[in-house]
Amino acid sequence: MKKLLFIIQFSLVLPSLAQEYRPLLDNFNEWHLTTCNNGCLTDVYYTDGDTIVDGKTYKILDGYHFISRSFLLREEIDSRKVYLSFSDRDRITEFLLYDFSLNVGDSIDIKNPISPFPTDGGFYRVDSIVNKQLVDDNEYRHFYLSPTPSNSTSNMLAKWIEGVGSLSLINAPGGYPDINAVGHLSCFFKNANLFYSNLDSISACEPLILSNDMGNNALENVTLNTLIKNGNCEIINAQNIRRVEIFDLNGRRVNVTKTTGEDRVNLDLSNFSAGIYFLVAHSSKFEKKVFKLLVK
Length: 296
Hints:
The chain has 2 domains: 28-197, no CATH class; 214-295, Sandwich (Immunoglobulin-like). The strands form 4 sheets. Strands 6-5-4-3-2-1-12-13 form an 8-stranded antiparallel β-sheet, with no helix packed on it. Strands 7-8-9-10-11 form a 5-stranded antiparallel β-sheet, with no helix packed on it. Strand 4 and strand 5 form a beta hairpin. It has one helix at residues 2-17; strands at 29-35, 41-53, 56-63, 71-76, 81-88, 91-99, 107-111, 120-133, 139-147, 158-161, 165-166, 184-190, 193-197, 223-229, 232-236, 241-247, 253-258, 264-268, 275-283, 288-295. It is mainly beta.
């Protein structure tokens, strides 16, 4: 009889020990992704505003290769799931990115939409879940996943952190965070407050987007000569530019050029396929200016 009473009392206590879920998305979110292929480079993307699609509220991704603002994130806190939607030719497609309700041994069909990884990543299994501290000294669940034996699409490991997402790109839950390849997450801020940091390849984490003084954009006078001659276009008043990126309509980065303070920058587009591209000029303070570019 005493054993029975002990089991009942313990089961009543157990729910109070369950870990409270920490949502991934806050009002404003900022990710820093670092790659070190030929010298280290940190790219920044962030959420910028909300929108409603089909009665669901999303946050709009911007920056890095999300500048088309057609990438939308939403989170269902009760189910602990995070979704990404992508608009393409007036059609909205939604993907399940993360399911933080999973337990060890559960599986999930991974999707890596519009990323360097396979869109259909195949089934992954949760191998372990470990509580570890982040910068606020609180413990958060770290999910370690691997492809199931039947998965013939992906062979890389994945790592998620509750409240953070993938340690690769946010839209690549099946991506391996490799500093020498696609890159790994260095910093993640919520409302300009540091939430996650990895200082293996950078010296410090500082929020950039919310702290920028948009009234004094160093790129305000930058212009683009869109009349392409012999496959070249020219950026004028480029002395404050430190990097130029070109993206296609799907948000994929197709070119990156580093600059050294010259007044004019010529870009060779002769190998580009005909179509519309976005050219993004960046200053050293992560200010940006975006131009639409037509290659015929």
